[in-house]
User: What shape does this take?
Amino acid sequence: MGIVQILGIGIIAAIFSIIIKQEKPEFAVLVSIATGIIIFFVIADKIPYVIDTFNNIISKTQVNMVFISTLIKIIGIAYITEFGSQICKDMGEGSIASKIELGGKVIIMVLGLPILTALTETILGILS
Assistant: This one.
């Protein structure tokens, strides 16, 4: 049911945006932002399920919680970056969108370094 809701909201918002763009183009961006927020609230009830699944993985595998929380942060940053980038693209600001994407990638890389370091140490420990 969730994807049908999202699809319906998206199609209605796209039609509405096209109609508004003819008369008041500056409001079309607001429609895009509002649509993103509405879709977020539609999917927000799925987030606890994802967190519970990660918690189950942690309890069964004894994976360090730092790695899982970092993974969740990385996923969140990727989604937020994509959302912000798409809004800028909708506004015709592709250059700013590219800078947002670059910033998101750098932050993700910085957050992932401790995981990469631990993985490298584990591999080197196995090889030794």
